[in-house]
Amino acid sequence: MSDLLYVYAVARAPLEGVPASTEGVGGAPVRPVEGDGLIAVVSDVRAEDFEEAPLRKHLEDLDWLSGTARAHESVVRAVSDVTGVVPLRLATVCRGESGVRRLLDEGYDRFTSNLDRLEGHVEWGVKLYATAQAEPAKEPASVEAPSSGRDYLRRRLRSRQSRERNWAQADALARRLHTELAGHAEAQRLHRPQSGELARADGVNVLNAAFLVRRAESEAFVGLVERLTPQEPGIRVEVTGPWAPYSFADLSDPREGRVGA
């Protein structure tokens, strides 16, 4: 049996109320490991998946990464539903319970300061997409063909200018939305816009932001997003959450994401 333990999150002891049926990576049951007043939520994982060399390969496999991320989020959500939590990065692995307790001991000040700051807060994600509808429609076949090269270039110019106006409008809305929402949140983070397979949505991701909001104010925050979103073709705003505050956990431990000694 592997002695590797996957660490999902850290909370204060005692930890009660997490469903016993909660499963982690690979369907393994989760359990707490306590150290110095803190609790690490862990599960056993296979060495052939999480030793350093195979883990590097797995992190390039989007299907494996997606399944692991879903299991990770499921456990973190189960814990955050009952207590304040510091979510750890994907694939944080330690060697045995002694390695987990060493992680808690070495990171004690970081964990406790984060728990103090994040208690009672959740993360909401807001993304704005400029969708394909923002592109000017193709001219119908019945439109008379350009009579000259100059006419053709003129039409191409108008089409390009129309697209540029659409993108400028989407960019202006993204900036306004971010500014307004930041004023109603405890903190905000701007992430790099998603593209390719990571976007998994129609359109171009113009805004990808996270907001730290008091849990009790979540409904008001989502309502504000809805009021600020114009009903315009070519613009789509996506709100996700509430999540554990991943984007706001300030942990810079070089051990994270690697196998503990």
UniProtKB/TrEMBL annotation:
PANTHER family: PROTEIN GVPL 2 (PTHR36852:SF1). Pfam families: GvpL_GvpF. The keyword Chloroplast does not apply. This is GvpL/GvpF family gas vesicle protein. It comes from Streptomyces xantholiticus. Belongs to the gas vesicle GvpF/GvpL family. It comes from the Bacteria. It is found in: Gas vesicle. InterPro entries: GvpL/GvpF. Keywords: Gas vesicle.
